[in-house]
Amino acid sequence: MTPYGGDRVRVDGETILLSCRVPKGWRARVERALNQSEFPGTAVMWDDEFYEVIRIEPLPAGVRYTLEPWRDHHAMRVSERYDAESEAHRVAERRSATVRERKRKSVNFLALFTGHLPAIVQERLASETGVLAARLTFISLFSTWVVMAVMAWLIATRVMAERPMPNWAIAIGGYLLLESALRFLLNMTQSRPVGSTVGVVAYILYWLLTGARRETTPFEALPGHGVTITATPDDRKLADSMTMREPLATLLPVEDQNRLQQRHGYDYRRSAYGVAAILLIFSTLGIVTSLINGAIVSLVVAIAVAGEQILRLAAFRRGPAPSVIGWLVRPLLRDLL
To answer: Of 60, 82, 104, which residue sits at a domain end?
Structure first.
């Protein structure tokens, strides 16, 4: 028996023990029981002979497969080849998966910025890395809201000091407010990526300043965009919509969150802590700015929101915890409830 790559083999009669550093995705035999039939493991073709995967055992630095000669009375439902070519292909696939995973983490980490890029560029990133393009847009909205919050604080500071605010600052603030509202509406209601003006301009400048302009157009479509493709299944649309709006669901009443769990497999723990932490950070900033400007009403609201988030963070260990602002987001999730 010839092992391939870094694998090691030991033969004990008809039993073969194959030790591998990386799992191969084979499945072990399911033994007969009172409530289930016997199900053969993966049929592995090795040196022109078929073997069945009997057991899979984890090792400190890999995995060990136990194989035996294939029994003729079983039908081959899942078969694999074990040879130099298949192992080389498996190694290449593993490297590609590692690169995709690294890119996926980078794209998610930089979503505050990549979500501003043109929609077709976000789709291209999603296709290459396996992320949701619509989620990139959603995360990028937070950067716009931070800029708007800073501008609002500057405007309030100048107004309190009885100093005039430049018209250009008011115009930029109004434009950002309108654009972010439209992007949020399209992103939430249609579950699709939406670029921003800053992102489109930045991408065009990048395209002009790099050699890519000699080979492509700035918004060249992905392969397949120019042909008719089948529509996304309704269940896939529903699952993507739930994934997109899951952070907002953590603010809903407990009965609504339980309903989402039963219908869509929603788990509050995936997003609840992050959403509560973000609200706590922004409400804390609101407390500070309200104290500086002497704004009593906004100070009370900010304290109430911050206190609620502290209580919710402590309550998440027992289960989902609603928020008093859940009624604001409930219309956006009505079709899922």
So the answer is: 82
